[in-house]
Design a protein that fits this description.
heterodimer, A: about 110 residues, mainly beta, seven-stranded mixed beta sheet, globular, B: about 120 residues, four-stranded antiparallel beta sheet, 11 strands, about 0% helix
Amino acid sequence: DIVMTQSPDSLAVSLGERATINCKSSQSVLYSSNDKNYVGWYQQKPGQPPKLVIYWASNRESGVPDRFSGSGSGTDFTLTISSLQAEDVALYYCQQYYSSPWTFGQGTRVEIK
Amino acid sequence: QVQLKQWGAGLLKPSETLSLTCAVYGGSFIDYHWSWIRQPPGKGLEWIGEIYHTGTTDYNPSLKSRVTISVDTSKKQFSLNLNSVTAADTALYYCARGGGKSSLRYWGQGTLVTVSS
């Protein structure tokens, strides 16, 4: 199985400041044939199902504010919230869909400082 | 607009079988894979398995011996059965559209399943 490891486990950021979450996969999730990284990022708020925010590592899902961005390739990926808003407080998970079984990182909790 | 609505028994005894069904409203059913994911209380996400409209399945090896996912394309529904449950199977169970090398774009509301004697 591909292991997805997120860091940090939690972070507290002031409103309007940048939040950065890292995700490292135990093997490359880049398909050379289409140059796509098979990584998604999800946001989960209390009492709600996860919500897809980024797919193919860097594509923002429709309706997601442009302060959210994804980057990285191969084994190292980052989710950035450029200017943290109160509504961004949540758990964030990365996921690989390169190789079954699809696996998730352990989650990163984002809070307001 | 795609919506997934799920239902099933929420309280089970050890050794019983967990059964959940997810209905899909809106969008194509045959163009996507359909997955089940679970989340133990206060913990992370675990992909259980998926199905395609043809009935082709893929399961997480960690649960494969106890899991069956089935599909009813005429009703746009898919179902999860997990047998011989224990307290370790207590979790929020979600259905979702995705898998088959695609992200999980739409999710059901979740069903809390508690296993307790």
